[in-house]
Amino acid sequence: MAVDGGKLLQAEVRSLANTADGRVVVRTVRAGTAGSEPDEIDADAVVVAAGAWSHRLAATLGDRIPLQTQRGYHVTVANPGVNPTLVVNWVRPRIFASPMEIGMRFAGTVEIASLEAAPDWRRADALLTLGRRMYPGMDVAQVSRWMGHRPCLPDSLPVIGRSPRASNVFYAFGHGHVGMCGASGTGRTIAELVAGEQPQIDISPFGVDRF
Which residues in the chain show pLDDT less than 70? Predict the structure, then answer.
């Protein structure tokens, strides 16, 4: 798919590799072609922003990054029959109730587990139990559950900058609980680096070499 002069390719990226002429090869497998030989895409520059899976791609270049996933859960109640107009935080049990167009969402839990670990839906069910205590008259006939991964580093700082082993590979991941808040600033910084410009902020605290 062409978008504003670019090409959008949906594929699973398996690894990255340097070339002798200073470029980088991205090895991918197209969606629906599992088991086939990877396609190789030559690139002048690559940005790794793959969330909780980013450290696996970095490792294919030899960069060892101690990223771990903090898994979050939420439940969404469609047509709850209660209509608060603001997000409500029940402080003691650390649960947030967020009114949304699709219903009432309850969230507020963290689980340290691997990417391969199966979801523990008891955590989502516990959120619903607390939500019903917040709103005893809530209609829970339609409930959906969700689990997602937050990529986190031991010092709670993201990784932003060049790979020490490939100057044309740029890392932008590990924002933990503030990924959406940090996305715009990180995007601007990465764009400056790719364009060969001096970033507007000091990115030395976010370098890979701190580990």
Answer: 1-3, 31-37
| Rounded Cα distance, 23 and 177, in Å | 33
Distance separating alpha carbons of residues 147 and 124, to the nearest angstrom = 8
CATH class of 2-67+155-210: alpha beta
What is the model's pLDDT at position 10?
A: 86
In sequence order, the β-bridge partners of residue 105 are 76, 98
Do the Cβ atoms of 168 and 24 come closer than 8 Å? yes
Q: Where in the chain is the domain with CATH 3.30.70?
A: 70-152
Pairing of strands 24-30, 68-78: unpaired
For the beta carbon of residue 200, count every other beta carbon within 10 angstroms.
10
Alpha-carbon span 95 to 108, nearest angstrom: 5
Nearest to 162 by CA among 196, 135, 138, 134: 196
Q: Is domain 70-152 given the CATH code 3.30.1360 in the classification?
A: no
pLDDT of residue 7: 84
What is the reported pLDDT for 33?
Answer: 61
Q: Return the pLDDT at 22.
A: 84
- Taking the C-alpha atoms of residue 127 and residue 163, their distance in angstroms, rounded to an integer, is 40
Can you read off the two tokens belonging to residue 37?
Answer: 């030989």
